[in-house]
Amino acid sequence: MPQLTDSQDRYGLISRIFHWGMALLFAAQFLSAAAHWALPREHAVREALWSYHPTLGATLFLLVLLRGVWGLANIGRRPGHSGLLGRAAFAGHLAIYALMVIVPSVRLLAAAGGTRGFSYLGIPIFPAQPAEIAWMRAPAEWHGEMGWILALLVLGHAAMAILWHHLIKRDGTLQRMTGSA
Ligand code: HEM
Ligand code: HEM
């Protein structure tokens, strides 16, 4: 039976499912954003990928909250980060967490203050407002930019894990998250 909770040596099964499951979903989310940015309006591929962007974004928002609660419940027994590079890695993880919360939040806030309302999986969440509420819409001006910053941080994060830790230093950091150590 694999260990569910985290330990000093590795992340437990629940943290690993959150990490790799959400990594796949984020890849799909960035793909839809990239198609939205790169392809012309009315393009069939752009439309198809864009059709799931708000729903998947709201799902990721719910998942990151659950993952954060699980991370806090395990905070005292997670693998440690020592030295300057370790502290930089920890700060990088915190920045990724912050953007994983802020990026969907600003867009959901804009939906709550918008005239079209917002439904999630067919369940009405925010009713349509009679007129746009400016202060609720304003932070979403930065939604796309912050989303791209998150994508860059994640690329750097994956490169550090695979190139630096796994291929150059061979220090077992990647195995803490794959569970194969
Ligand atoms: C973690 C979740 C999310 C990520 C990583 C993300 C990422 C992005 C990115 C990178 C763009 C820019 C696309 C471009 O340059 O054309 C974008 C645009 C957009 N997203 Fe998201 N998004 C997320 C969640 C959401 C949610 C929950 C909603 C709706 C409730 C939403 C609605 C939109 C809309 C309407 C746009 C086009 C207008 C704009 O750029 O603000 N997104 N998203
Ligand atoms: C190929 C892609 C990826 C690889 C190889 C990878 C690798 C890793 C590894 C090895 C760790 C443990 C690092 C340590 O203990 O110091 C980790 C942790 C972490 N990763 Fe990734 N990662 C990838 C994708 C992602 C994505 C897409 C996200 C978020 C959008 C993400 C967010 C995090 C966070 C927040 C942590 C801290 C631990 C936690 O709370 O889950 N990673 N990753």
**In CATH's first tier, which class applies?**
Mainly Alpha
CATH fold-level label:
Fumarate Reductase Cytochrome B subunit
Note the total helix count: 7
Mean pLDDT: 96
Q: Which regions contain 5 or more consecutive residues with pLDDT less than 50?
A: none
Number of strand elements: 2
Q: What share of residues is helical? A: 55-70%
- Beta fraction: under 5%
Q: Mind describing the biggest β-sheet? A: 2 strands, antiparallel
CATH architecture: Up-down Bundle
What Rg is obtained from the alpha carbons, in whole angstroms? 19 Å
Count the domains.
1
Class by helix and strand content?
A: mainly alpha
- Output the strand order for the largest sheet: 1-2
The rough form would be described as elongated
The helix/strand series, from N terminus to C terminus, equals HHHHEEHHH
Q: Which small molecules are bound? A: protoporphyrin IX containing FE
How far is the first residue's CA from the last residue's CA? 15 Å
Word description of this protein:
The protein is mainly α and 181 residues long. The chain has a single domain, classed as Fumarate Reductase Cytochrome B subunit (Up-down Bundle). It has helices at residues 13-38, 44-50, 53-73, 83-112, 134-137, 143-169, 173-178, and strands at 118-120, 123-126. It has a two-stranded antiparallel sheet. Helix 1 (13-38) packs antiparallel against helix 2, helix 3 (53-73) crosses helix 4 and helix 4 (83-112) packs antiparallel against helix 6 (143-169). The longest helix is centred in the middle third of the chain and has 30 residues, at 83-112.
